[in-house]
UniProtKB/TrEMBL annotation, chain A:
<protein>
    <submittedName>
        <fullName>Putative ABC transport system permease protein</fullName>
    </submittedName>
</protein>
<feature type="transmembrane region" description="Helical">
    <location>
        <begin position="150"/>
        <end position="174"/>
    </location>
</feature>
<keyword id="KW-0812">Transmembrane</keyword>
<comment type="similarity">
    <text>Belongs to the ABC-4 integral membrane protein family.</text>
</comment>
<feature type="transmembrane region" description="Helical">
    <location>
        <begin position="202"/>
        <end position="223"/>
    </location>
</feature>
<dbReference type="InterPro" id="IPR027022">
    <property type="entry name" value="ABC_permease_BceB-typ"/>
</dbReference>
<keyword id="KW-0472">Membrane</keyword>
<feature type="transmembrane region" description="Helical">
    <location>
        <begin position="55"/>
        <end position="78"/>
    </location>
</feature>
<feature type="transmembrane region" description="Helical">
    <location>
        <begin position="106"/>
        <end position="130"/>
    </location>
</feature>
UniProtKB/TrEMBL annotation, chain B:
<dbReference type="InterPro" id="IPR003593">
    <property type="entry name" value="AAA+_ATPase"/>
</dbReference>
<dbReference type="InterPro" id="IPR003439">
    <property type="entry name" value="ABC_transporter-like_ATP-bd"/>
</dbReference>
<keyword id="KW-0067">ATP-binding</keyword>
<dbReference type="GO" id="GO:0016887">
    <property type="term" value="F:ATP hydrolysis activity"/>
</dbReference>
<dbReference type="InterPro" id="IPR027417">
    <property type="entry name" value="P-loop_NTPase"/>
</dbReference>
<protein>
    <submittedName>
        <fullName>Putative ABC transport system ATP-binding protein</fullName>
    </submittedName>
</protein>
<feature type="domain" description="ABC transporter">
    <location>
        <begin position="1"/>
        <end position="205"/>
    </location>
</feature>
<dbReference type="InterPro" id="IPR017911">
    <property type="entry name" value="MacB-like_ATP-bd"/>
</dbReference>
<dbReference type="Pfam" id="PF00005">
    <property type="entry name" value="ABC_tran"/>
</dbReference>
Length: 670, 216
């Protein structure tokens, strides 16, 4: 009997529940999709790399826990709205003689029912969405999915059920507590208390609004000037200014706006604009705190999505120039030690019994450090700030050098002509053209380098952009020095580069990736104490792609959850406000306002209410992204993808709110 | 006038086109409103009719001025005209001092005068008032009724008012008594003083049985 009441209630009040249900389902769907990542084909390909696998799992678990806190809060908040809305209905049950215990039971069953349905629908939807996600992943990771497979991740299903089970459990407990505290009289007279408009004074509203604009503009200027350096305390002050600017903005904007619009009689005295303006003023003014939170959350989301997608683009491009060698390794030289076995990578390979195959082209070389630093070399062309930045970004320091014969052996395996240098000539190899104008200016104006007391002619006119190893770090600066260079030289590392034969590519890749993984796991430490680190080009790519993938996942995951949360909170506020404003809509109808006009008013209100925080968030984001631009360089795809996600979810909530409010107003009147 | 449940509100609802009649016709200003199209109905309602309600029906979020303006703006009236008309009615009903106040800052009588201003600002040919003095004390009632009289005289507005109160009724020129949905009696004031008219009303009310308690 009670279950029947509960089922009927859920069915009947589906209108009230629709936003709640939408939120729960979307939350489950997203939660499932992201947790199913581990069993995606594309990821399975990458799982050969144990480091990547572990960190991805840890990251997703950590994020999931954080997300379930956010969702838990959101669901309890949403549920609270529903209970409030139904106070009267529950009160009537009580007057009919139904004991509280049984009402609790009905509520319990209702929560359970909604939880169950949303969980099932959410997981089903998630299974669909995760297939699309799988394709996105494959694309990010550059993995070819030649055998596409429909995947259902059991572990993700279990995880979703457990996490959401706990959340729903909490909601049930919360409901029981709320019900037990209600008094019958309050429930029957769950009257709409008129929310007091907090800011009515025109002068103060203009003052606060001006203050908020000043704060925001100052914050924008500051962040654009100093950039986003988290270590900088200035940034903290800027953030505080931004937060308070936003807060003041929402506190005053609607009052300020009303005073402005009032002056424009054409807008003010048209249709029921007077009513719409007052409604919005009322709403924004009473909910300015949540508006601020939502605006900041949206700001975070937009920036997050944007950066996530863009980081991927940045990584894609950084991989482009790095393809000459299929694998490289280096031994970190210990200058305290005299033992060649510890400092020569060739000896090291002998020690661990590794030999190159005949089809593999390889070259050994040594890297030295000069006494000259990069800052000193370019000092005439760098401003003081640039010098500081160079050191800070690890682009400065003592110059690296390799000897001509080593360089020629590298040129030989890459199939280039060898090069001649006389005793007083050097070559400049660098990618710094892309980083600073100082290098090209230097190359143009100087034709010699002074190292210690000796003058060396620079043989090339522009820096040669040819890295001498497969390396994660794409920035390099080397000098090629004559073999009989007699200045100060400190051996830094001994290295080798390998180029595979196309025909035996897979075998070679397998050999070297195994070797490097074993070295990383310290398998040869008891054979030789030397520290050797190596990467194949594929390993580098996978790692970078893996990192891009992780950033995109986490960015998307958090971003989507944030959007849902903010949209849901706004939708619920709108709906509850609609039932509180029922009397006003009724009054409008009685003085002859048509339904068409009322629907239009509802649309306008929902639109302004939804898009006020979004607009400010977009302005914030544009500034934030420009500031970030110092770190990443952006491309347009990221804008499209992030707007798409934001637009769809936000749009769905906006529309369901509009329909929901319309229904409340229509049905509350008959 | 008429006992509870006799059909007074229903009659007003039919005239105001909120309700539809099953038989018969309603003719206002030589226009049969019983078979108007929706668009024409909406226009008729906003142009020809004014409403005054027992519960004032003012919007709590709007100032008195805005409440009155709303009746004009929904007709898309010219902006210049709006302010002129509001000032004019406000002066007539002596509410120009309180135009910038919100309903919660006004007394019941003041609220009803604002509501009346809203009803007549569109210069309707007929004002429908369902127990407008129901929520007012006798002093406020009298003030309101005085202003109704003024409206009737100076604006030539016809006011159709439902009331249980014989004193309120004595302000009218013509009284229809309704019982069980039918017109039961009619009184016309003619040249009677209000006192004489009041006594006549009392007689009918006693005859109808009921509502006597309301008199004093
Ligand atoms: N002419 C009629 N024919 C049929 N039913 C009618 C008629 N007039 C009124 N009724 C019905 O009588 C009921 C009461 O009518 P109404 O609300 O108009 O009474 P009232 O006079 O306004 O009462 P009160 O003084 O309590 O406000 C309504 O349900 C209405 O449908
Ligand atoms: Mg009635």
């Amino acid at each position: 009997m009670f279950s029947k009441i509960a089922v009927n209630n859920v069915k009947r009040s589906f209108r009230d529940y629709s936003i709640y249900f939408l939120t729960l389902t979307l939350a489950v769907c997203i939660f499932y999709s992201f947790n199913s990542i581990e069993s995606q084909n594309a990821i399975l390909e990458l799982n050969k790399n144990p480091i990547f696998h572990d960190s991805l799992n840890k990251l997703i678990t950590g994020t999931s826990i954080f997300v379930s806190f956010v969702l838990g809060g959101l669901i309890i908040y949403a549920n609270n709205f529903l209970i409030k809305k139904r106070k009267k209905e529950l009160g009537i049950y009580m007057t009919l003689g139904m004991p509280k215990r049984k009402i609790s039971k009905i509520l319990l069953f209702e929560t359970f029912l909604i939880g169950l349905v949303s969980l099932i629908v959410g997981i089903l939807l998630g299974i669909l969405v995760s297939q699309g996600l799988s394709l996105l992943v494959a694309n990010i990771l550059g993995v070819n999915l030649n055998h596409y497979q429909f995947i259902i991740s059991l572990s993700a299903v279990i995880k979703s059920v457990v996490y959401f089970g706990i959340i729903y459990g909490l909601v049930m407990i919360f409901n029981q507590y709320t019900i037990s505290k209600y008094k019958l009289i309050d429930m029957l007279h769950a009257s709409k208390k008129n929310e007091e408009v907090k800011l009515k004074n025109a002068f103060i509203s203009v003052l606060v609004f001006t203050l908020s604009v000043i704060l925001l503009v100052t914050a924008y200027v500051r962040v654009l000037e100093t950039g986003l350096d988290a270590a900088n305390t200035e940034l903290f002050i800027t953030v505080i200014m931004g937060v308070f600017g936003t807060l003041f903005f929402f506190f005053s904007t609607s009052s300020f706006f009303i005073h402005v619009v009032k002056k424009n009689k054409k807008v003010y005295l048209k249709g029921i604009n007077i009513f719409i303006l007052r409604q919005i003023n009322n709403k924004i003014n009473t909910n300015f705190l949540s508006m601020t939170l939502i605006c900041l959350m949206l700001f975070l989301t937009i920036t997050l999505l944007f950066t996530a997608f863009d980081l991927k683009g940045t990584i894609d491009r950084s991989l482009e120039g790095n393809k000459e060698f299929d694998a490289s390794a280096f031994l970190v030289v210990d200058n305290e030690s005299e033992d060649p076995r510890e400092n020569d990578i060739e000896e090291y390979l002998k020690d661990i019994n590794f030999t190159f195959e005949n089809n593999e082209k390889y070259a050994f070389y040594s890297e030295y450090k000069l006494s000259l630093t990069i800052e000193d070399l370019l000092s005439d062309y760098l401003s003081e700030q640039e010098q500081v930045d160079l050191v800070k970004d690890y682009l400065g320091g003592p110059m690296s050098a390799i000897k001509l014969s080593d360089y020629n052996s590298i040129l030989e395996i890459t199939g280039n002509e060898s090069i001649q240098l006389s005793d007083d000539e050097v070559l400049v190899l660098s990618s710094y053209d892309n980083i600073t104008d100082a290098l090209p200016e230097f190359m143009e104006n100087e034709d010699s380098i002074q190292i210690e007391d000796k003058e060396y002619t620079i043989k090339n006119d522009v820096a040669i952009e040819k890295n001498i190893k497969a390396n994660l770090d794409s920035d390099f600066f080397y000098l090629v020095i004559p073999d009989n260079f007699d200045g100060d030289l400190e051996l830094e590392s001994t290295n080798f580069n390998v180029i595979y034969d196309e025909r035996y590519f897979d075998e070679s890749e397998e050999r070297f990736s195994t070797l490097f993984n074993d070295m990383w796991d310290n398998k040869y430490r008891d054979v030789s104490p030397a520290l050797v680190i190596g990467n194949t080009l594929n390993q580098i790519k996978d790692r970078q792609n893996g990192m891009a993938a992780m950033v995109v996942f986490i960015g998307l995951f958090l971003g989507l959850i944030f959007i849902i949360s903010s949209a849901a909170v706004m939708a619920l506020q709108q709906l509850s406000d609609a039932s509180e404003s029922l009397g006003r809509y009724k009054a409008l109808k009685r003085i002859g306002v048509t339904e068409r006009m009322i629907n239009k008013a509802i649309l306008k209100q929902s639109f302004i209410y939804f898009f006020a925080p979004l607009s400010l968030a977009i302005v914030h984001s544009i500034v934030g992204i420009i500031a970030l631009n110092d770190i990443f360089s952006f491309h347009y795809e990221s804008i499209i993808v992030s707007t798409l996600f934001l637009g769809i979810i936000y749009g769905v909530y906006f529309y369901s709110t509009y329909v929901g409010v319309k229904n409340v107003v229509k049905n509350g009147n008959s | 006038m008429g006992p509870s449940g006799s059909g007074k509100t229903t009659l007003l609802n039919c005239i105001s086109t909120i309700d539809t009649v099953t038989t018969g016709r309603i003719v206002i200003n030589k226009k049969d409103i019983t078979n108007l199209k929706i668009k024409a109905l909406e226009e008729f309602r906003s142009k020809e009719l004014g409403f005054i309600f027992q519960d004032f029906n003012l919007l709590d979020t709007l100032t008195a001025y805005e409440n009155i303006a709303l009746a004009l703006t929904i007709q898309n009236m010219a902006i210049k005209e709006i302010d002129k008309r509001i000032q004019q009615v406000a002066k007539k009903l002596e509410i120009n001092e309180m135009l910038n106040k919100y309903p919660f800052q006004l007394s019941g009588g003041q609220k009803q005068r604002v509501a009346s201003a809203r009803a007549i600002v569109t210069e309707p040919s007929l004002i429908l008032a369902d127990e407008p003095t129901g929520a007012l004390d006798s002093k406020s009632s009298r003030l309101l009724l005085d202003s109704f009289e003024k409206l009737n005289r100076e604006f030539n507005s016809t006011i159709l008012m439902v009331t249980h109160d014989s004193f309120t009724a004595s302000y009218a020129n013509r009284i229809l008594f309704i019982k069980d949905g039918r017109i039961f009696n009619e009184l016309i004031r003619g040249n009677d003083t209000r006192k004489e008219f009041f006594n006549k009303i009392m007689e009918v009310v006693t005859l109808l049985g009921g509502d006597v308690d309301n008199v004093l």
